[in-house]
Write a structure and sequence with these properties.
Blueprint lengths: L3 H14 L1 H10 L2 H4 L4 E8 L2 E9 L2 E6 L21 E6 L18 H14 L5 E6 L1 H12 L4 E7 L5 H13 L3 H13 L15 H11 L1 H4 L18 H8 L14
Parallel strand pairs: 3-4, 3-5, 5-6
Antiparallel strand pairs: 1-2, 2-4
Helix pairs in contact: 4-5, 7-8
């Protein structure tokens, strides 16, 4: 879910955190170098899993973890780019997502393992204390990291996320109750028929396009863009994710219930 207004709130929060640092950067950096923001990318071998990272900017480190589960860091761009003027941004693709290594055993896609991936990236890049920003599922991951490694954080920034799967399932139940009867009937009909295994061979491992539009488009739209419609929003583009990972963690029975390994 690409809540642009959430990103703006994140940007505001981080700009407040880093305003003092911005002044320091301006006083110590020449005009020539400050006009160029270089990008570094690579992979960290996190206990046998190659985790992709890309960094840019200067200043104190801000590590950013994405949603999905199974999306990639790319949907943060270009929205968070202005923060590179005051922070060293570190984007990662979580295990199995984006450019990071895919695993044959999908049961290894867990929050606990991803916490260790984040820690391995922090150590490999010698980041010291970090600010950690988690969006959507990334917020779940960020909270889990903070609970295990609180001493490694200077700030924790949570965007459009949840702290309890059971509470989130209650929210989804209320969302369904507020749907127009026609939309609810359409969604429940597709869920009852099963959301996987339909269409052509290359379509069988993911939601159908009809369900993506109904759930991520009609279902989510009032909560994301009702007051500020985004002309670029396309629910089908959300389908560009690691579906084996998504199904393992979110579950197989619909967008409005979490019953994969995140249920714990």
């Amino acid at each position: 879910m690409k809540q642009i207004f959430i990103f703006l709130l994140c940007a505001l929060a981080i700009s407040i955190i880093s305003c003092k640092q911005s002044t320091e950067n301006k006083s110590s950096t020449g005009n020539a170098s400050s006009s160029i923001i270089k990008i570094e990318e690579g992979f960290v071998d996190a206990h046998g899993v190659l985790i992709y990272y890309t960094t840019m900017g200067q200043g104190k480190p801000l590590l950013i973890v994405h949603g999905g589960p199974g999306a990639s860091h790319e949907y943060f761009l270009p929205y968070l780019l202005p923060l590179a003027r005051t922070n060293r941004l570190i984007f990662i693709d979580e295990r199995g997502s984006g450019r990071s290594q895919k695993l044959e055993d999908s049961s290894a896609y867990t929050v606990e393992n991803m916490v260790e991936d984040v820690e391995d990236v922090r150590l490999a890049l010698d980041l010291g204390k970090i600010s950690l920003l988690g969006h959507s599922f990334g917020g779940v991951l960020a909270q889990a990291y903070a609970l295990k490694y609180p001493a490694n954080l200077s700030h924790l920034i949570l965007c459009s996320t949840f702290h309890s799967t059971s509470k989130m399932n209650e929210v989804f139940k209320k969302m369904k109750e507020k749907m127009a009867p026609e939309l609810l009937a359409r969604i429940e009909k597709m869920e009852k028929a099963g959301l996987y295994g339909h269409g052509k061979k290359y379509e069988k491992g993911r939601y159908t396009s009809e369900y993506m539009i109904a759930a991520w488009g009609d279902g989510y739209f009032p909560y994301l863009y009702e007051n500020h419609p985004d002309a670029n929003y396309d629910p089908l583009s959300n389908g560009n994710m690691a579906w084996d990972l998504y199904r393992e963690m979110w579950g197989s029975n619909g967008e409005f219930v979490i019953d994969g390994n995140l249920k714990s």
